[in-house]
Automatic annotation (TrEMBL):
Residues 404-477 form the Mab-21-like HhH/H2TH-like domain. GO terms for molecular function: protein kinase inhibitor activity. Residues 1-24 form the signal peptide. This is Inositol 1,4,5-trisphosphate receptor-interacting protein. Enhances Ca(2+)-mediated inhibition of inositol 1,4,5-triphosphate receptor (ITPR) Ca(2+) release. It is a single-pass type I membrane protein. Residues 38-82 form a coiled coil. One of its GO terms (cellular component) is plasma membrane. SMART domains: Mab-21 (SM01265). Keywords: Cell membrane, Coiled coil, Glycoprotein, Membrane, Nucleus, Signal, Transmembrane, Transmembrane helix.
Length: 549
């Protein structure tokens, strides 16, 4: 107990002794140090406060920037969604507009064929034939005898005269040409309606084609649209003609396809065997800087050569010769002193390989808009095979078959209508193509002379169907049923069918005009035929109808 009291007293005494207030002089700096510490603490506190404010400001700025970015992203997203919605509405509106426009045009053109029931392959008499008074066989026979049959003799005399003069003109042309540099001209051939005996409308015009070949040592190597890779639609029916040396490899050498080094030489093609310079290739009527034959250059050369030939032989004849049409370079006209004239077309062509298919530089007469890819693309004509096919089929038909009569009547009606309402997209070649298809489709006994009326209606039905579908296929191209006796090239038989009415798809104004002309021809058919027909008693006509039934 006393020890504990002692310890407590000792602690109290020690605390009293060490208290700073008991020694003010020795510890006089304590208050000053305290104030300095307090001041520093205040300064530190102030700096921390400022730092805190700066950090808060930075945080606020960052939050504001983040919000701005988020808002901008939302705006962009909304704009994209709105643009997508707008694009969808725009596309949908365009589709609806196009559908309405197509419906409107189809409605204007009219739906000719009935929608109910199945239709025959030849098509039924549609709305275009409703209300049409079709001439009977007696009227047609009288019309054919009076208006058409008498023109056969005139055609024969004109063919003989034109062929004789053309042979003389071409012989003079050969004499004025340079055999070592100019093209070699062969004998001419007659093609078309004048030589197939179905042309009816005057003035008669003979169509002559003149094959030509390049001078030695050159030759023509041709390529058609169906002999290589697939061609665009506007090049179907065309081909190109390359001017090559006769000893040049047909497939070509690799040196012509790749660049050899300056220190490398092709062993197959020496400098002596290289093709002619560009200027000399142009002398061979090629397109500039190419080896491809240019149709425009050929026609210029041919015009100049014909002019020189005529100057050499003009003293032998008592008439003048001139080029009749500017847009048809081969169209010539003989003018007699009496004022009469005779027109004919002399057109240069290039033979396709060893066949009777020819590349033709241009067509003398065409109502459809030109769709020529370029002047180095030549159209192929099958006129020689068409003439042979008609001659071959005619031998198997009944005597005095009506196939040519149908074509002549249809050609006459269409020509008369065009003279009243203006030209249309239909040509005589289209009408002949219709006849060729029907000749192959129908048995030979269907072409007996007493079936003229029925076959003429078939041609009109077929033509109506083709116009409605805008499809009339070329008779030879893609036709695997061509008689083998013709020797027709297999490459064209195996090709895709060629639609002769494709321009109607591209040129709706021409199509509309053609359809209107066709309808007008049907309405005026009886009037046009009766105008050139002798009067037939009604009783006689009714009697013929009863016999036909």
């Amino acid at each position: 107990m006393p020890v504990g009291i002692f310890r407590v007293c000792l602690v109290v005494i020690t605390a009293i002794i060490n208290h700073p207030l008991l020694f003010p002089k020795e510890n006089g700096t304590v208050p000053e140090n305290t104030e300095e510490i307090i001041r520093k603490m205040k300064e530190r506190e102030e700096s921390l406060r400022l730092e805190q404010l700066r950090l808060e400001q930075e945080i606020a700025d960052q939050e504001a920037a983040q919000k701005a970015l988020e808002k901008a992203a939302e705006v962009v997203k909304e704009s994209k969604e709105e643009k997508v919605r707008w694009d969808m509405w725009t596309a949908l509106s365009m589709v609806i507009f196009l559908l309405i426009e197509l419906w409107r045009q189809d409605f204007q053109e009219g739906i000719w064929q009935d929608t109910g029931g199945e239709e025959d392959d030849m098509a039924v008499l549609g709305k275009a034939f409703k209300g049409v008074a079709f001439p009977d066989k007696a009227v047609l026979a009288s019309f054919y005898e009076k208006r058409i049959l008498g023109t056969t003799g005139d055609m024969a005399r004109m063919r003989e005269m034109v062929e004789g003069f053309a042979d003389d003109l071409l012989e003079a042309l050969r004499s004025v040409c340079n055999r070592d540099a100019d093209m070699e001209v062969e004998d001419c051939m007659g093609v078309g309606s004048m030589y197939e005996n179905w042309r009816v409308r005057k003035p008669f015009v003979c169509d002559l084609i003149v094959p030509f070949a390049p001078p030695e040592p050159y030759c023509f190597r041709s390529q058609t649209w169906c002999s290589g890779d697939s061609s665009p639609p506007n090049e179907q029916g065309y081909g190109t003609i390359k001017v090559c040396r006769a000893d040049e490899d047909v497939t070509g050498c690799i040196c012509d396809k790749t660049k050899l080094g300056e220190d490398m030489l092709c062993l197959l093609h020496s400098p002596a065997n290289t093709t002619r310079p560009n200027s000399e290739m142009e002398d061979l009527l090629c397109f500039k800087n190419t080896q491809y034959l240019d149709a425009n250059q050929v026609m210029k050369w041919f015009q100049i050569a014909v002019t020189k030939a005529w100057n050499r032989i003009s003293h032998k004849y008592e008439f003048d010769l001139s080029f009749s049409l500017l847009d048809s370079p081969g169209a010539l006209k003989i003018k007699f002193r009496s004022g009469k004239s005779v027109a004919f077309n002399l057109t240069p062509v290039v033979q396709y390989e060893n066949s009777d298919v020819y590349f033709i530089s241009h067509f003398p007469r065409s109502s459809l808009p030109a769709d020529l890819p370029s002047s180095t693309h030549w159209f192929l004509t099958f006129a020689v095979y068409e003439r042979r096919f008609i001659q071959l089929v005619s031998k198997m038909l009944p005597a005095n078959a009506c196939h040519v009569s149908c074509l002549q009547i249809l050609s006459f009606l269409h020509g008369k209508q065009c003279s009243l309402t203006g030209p249309s997209g239909l040509t005589n070649y289209h009408l002949k193509t219709v006849m060729l298809h029907l000749l192959q489709a129908r048995p030979s006994q269907d072409w007996a002379p007493e079936k003229l009326e029925a076959r003429l209606q078939d041609m009109l039905k077929f033509l109506e169907k083709c116009l409605h579908e805008k499809k009339l296929y070329h008779f030879f191209i893609g036709n695997g049923k061509v008689p083998a006796e013709l020797g027709f090239p297999i490459i064209f038989q195996s090709a895709e069918p060629l639609n002769l009415f494709r321009p109607f798809v591209l040129h709706r104004d021409v199509y509309r005009k053609t359809v209107d002309t066709f309808h007008e021809m049907l309405r005026n058919m009886s009037a046009l035929i009766n105008e050139y027909t002798v009067h037939i008693p009604l009783a006689h006509t009714n009697g013929i109808h009863k016999e036909s039934l």
